[in-house]
Design a protein that fits this description.
The protein has about 190 residues and is α+β, with helices and mostly antiparallel strands. The chain contains seven helices and seven strands. A hairpin with a 2-residue loop joins strand 6 (about 160-170) and strand 7 (about 170-175). The N and C termini lie far apart (about 35 Å).
Length: about 190
């Protein structure tokens, strides 16, 4: 299995995806600007673009896919090229695999902004059915935990953790409020 595209071409593909995210930031105002959701907070398109800039081309496209489809990290990690309908613009998750929540089969919309970029990425792959393969064992997909670790590296580089003060029962607590990979799904639901 090999990536048959030179690194500079992959960098250009990453740059296109980053530009799409920055353009979405200008087009789409966040509906819930101060929304605090259970577990994680939604990203803005600008924050996602910044995360993508510090990521590798593959991880930038993983973040891009998660943000524009609302897919969970396990669904993206196990995403098969054969489960993408490029003509209709859909991604099937959980089809024959146990990565979808509650083992359900689902269909995610693939927006027109994402399709040409992901199709180009798809064309760069040889010898694997995974859209995002594992760097060590290319015949398997990336793992959800590996995806989470790469996300944390990028999040820390961009310093997206915010400390906030919580007042509970009249006592003040300083807590670290972390953005997580679920923030991509919250971004998708917030626009």
């Amino acid at each position: 299995i090999k990536q048959r595209t030179p690194p500079e071409e992959l960098a250009k593909l990453k740059d296109k995806a980053v530009k799409v995210m920055y353009s979405l930031h200008k087009k789409l105002p966040l509906k819930y600007d101060t929304m605090i959701m259970k577990g994680s907070r939604p990203f803005t398109a600008n924050q996602i673009a910044r995360l993508m800039e510090v990521a590798t081309p593959k991880m930038a496209l993983v973040f891009f896919t998660m943000a524009l489809t609302g897919a969970r990290r396990a669904e993206v990690a196990d995403l098969r090229r054969s489960n993408i309908d490029w003509n209709e613009g859909y991604i099937w998750v959980g089809e024959g695999y146990s990565t979808a929540k509650n083992n359900k089969v689902g269909r995610l919309f693939l927006p027109p902004e994402a399709t040409p970029i992901l199709e180009k990425w798809n064309d760069t792959l040889d010898g694997t059915d995974f859209l995002f393969f594992n760097n060590q064992f290319k015949e398997i997909g990336i793992t959800p935990n590996g995806l989470g670790q790469e996300f944390k590296k990028c999040r820390d580089k961009e310093n997206l953790d915010r400390k906030r003060e919580v007042i509970k029962d009249g006592k003040k607590y300083n807590t670290k409020y972390e953005f997580s990979t679920h923030g991509f799904r919250n971004f998708y639901c917030s626009y």
